[in-house]
Design brief:
This protein has 442 residues and is α/β, with parallel strands linked by helices. It is built from 18 helices and 12 strands. Bound molecules: S-adenosylmethionine. The site of S-adenosylmethionine has 18 residues, from helix 14 and strand 6. It holds the Pfam family NusB.
Length: 442
């Protein structure tokens, strides 16, 4: 059994981040909301140093990234009857540290034991926690060797991806989700110059991929608003709209504004719409740093009343399964019910977008989802409902020559293992779908 907090001041110091990680994992799973939202809500009261907060976040992220592997390892080392969720979550964050983080095993074990001892419902489980986590540490190699990629994907997603992409591609997707995403930047101008100044790699699509991890706010160009963080795949849909100076463009689901910034930087007059006033505030702050100006409107896009636009970007709310590398909590907090509600909303938003477009105008519909229901099928159904629109196929030259990322019908479909070649700095991209439509007439 681990020593008490009083006897062990060094691990006592590590309790704060573990307590926060435990609470965040529990609340995220209980409420089925994004980990980032729970972290933002709970971290002020934890009052941790930036370093400890970063440790808490790292524990949470890796717990969700490998929750299947961790759950399996724990189930095999626990009595079948063990169902107390708080206990299981405490064990999960302990096992996550032992198996996947560069944390001494004793620190992971002892902090978990001390957290249990401080909890009136779990204080009698300290011996069990100590024994199970020590066993996980002893048997680490066997646990990791037996952890095949599908373990960390729930069955419903595995079935969907195999049906949509076939066994091989689906397995590569699951494997890609085990790695962390790289940090990519979009620049207002001079991508090559900024890549050099930041020591990054200029990707064929025009984004910059950072090579060294560093606090974003401390990098050259942050204060002057020369660039913003945006995944390389997420940077493609706004470009497909081919925004021109002076064109009136509506960005119907705009916050926090990565794509709005691209449209404004191209010189378009942008109306940025978002249902969430709070998220729109973040957009306004982000664009102020970038010294870009747009009009904003906090309203559900379905209710927007406006003169027709030259172009519309609809980056619709979706399951976000394309962002699992960045947000592995998505895997465990979203379900098929969410997908049904989201696809219905996406169809409504597409219909509204169609009604707001001038004849001859372009509409780009995109989602950061791997699910055909939110991508390919949504685009096909839109064309059936709107015979006045045609698909404008995407050319490889528009996306840095990445012809593998274009479907037979000419839509964009990126997968997390794309742009992850032999070059060690090519660390994959978000899974994105985009279709481009033009309204007939002029
Ligand atoms: C995928 S995010 C948009 C990301 C953004 N385009 C970017 O590149 O930074 C989807 C956004 O849609 C907003 N949203 C959800 N339902 C909406 C609706 N009915 N009308 C307008 N915005 C909505 C959400 O608040 C969220 O900010």
């Amino acid at each position: 059994m681990g020593l008490s907090a009083v006897d062990q001041p060094d691990t006592q110091a590590g309790l704060g981040p573990r307590r926060l990680a435990w609470d965040v994992v529990s609340e995220t799973l209980k409420r089925r909301v994004p980990l980032d939202d729970v972290m933002d809500e709970l971290s002020p009261a934890a009052n941790l140093s930036p370093r400890d907060e970063a440790l808490a976040r790292a524990i949470c992220v890796v717990t969700f990234r490998r929750l299947g592997t961790i759950g399996n390892a724990l189930r095999e080392r626990l009595n079948k009857g063990q169902r107390d969720e708080r206990l299981l979550h405490l064990l999960a964050i302990g096992a996550a540290q032992i198996l996947f983080l560069d944390v001494p095993d004793h620190a992971a074990v002892d902090t978990a034991v001390q957290l249990a001892q401080g909890d009136y419902k779990l204080k009698h489980a300290d011996g069990l926690i100590n024994a199970v986590l020590r066993r996980v540490a002893r048997e680490r190699d066997a646990i990791l060797k037996g952890a095949e990629p599908w373990l960390d994907t729930p069955d419903w997603l595995e079935d969907r991806w195999i049906a949509q992409y076939g066994e091989d591609v689906a397995k590569r997707i699951a494997e890609a989700h085990r790695s962390t995403a790289s940090v990519d930047l979009s620049v207002k101008k001079d991508a090559a110059g900024w890549a050099e100044r930041l020591g990054g790699v200029l990707l064929p699509t025009g984004s910059i991929r950072l090579v060294e991890r560093a606090p974003i706010r401390e990098l050259a160009g942050y204060d002057e608003g020369a660039w913003w963080v945006q995944d390389a795949a997420a940077a493609l849909p706004a470009r497909l709209l081919k925004p021109q100076p002076g064109q009136r463009i509506a960005d119907l689901c705009a916050a926090p504004g990565g794509k709005t910034a691209q449209l404004a930087a191209a010189g378009a007059e942008v109306l940025a719409v978002d249902r969430s006033a709070k998220r729109l505030e973040r957009l306004t702050e982000n664009l102020a740093r970038l010294k870009l100006s747009v009009e904003t409107r906090a309203i559900a896009a379905e209710k927007l009343d406006a003169e027709p636009f030259d172009g519309i970007l609809l980056d619709a709310p979706c399951s976000a399964t394309g962002t699992i590398r960045r947000h592995p909590d998505v895997t465990w907090t979203k379900g098929e019910d969410d997908l049904r509600k989201l696809t219905a909303l996406q169809s409504r938003l597409l219909d509204k977008a169609a009604s707001l477009l001038k004849p001859g105008g372009r509409l780009v519909y995109c989602t950061c989802s791997l699910e055909a229901d939110e991508g390919e099928k949504q685009a096909d159904a839109f064309l059936i409902r709107h015979p006045g629109f045609v698909r404008e196929p995407i050319e490889p030259s528009e996306i840095g020559g990445l012809s593998d990322c274009i479907t037979q019908k000419g839509d964009l479909r990126t997968l997390p293992f794309h742009l992850d070649g032999a070059d060690q700095h090519r660390g994959g991209v978000d899974g994105f779908f985009a279709a481009r439509f033009v309204r007939s007439g002029s």
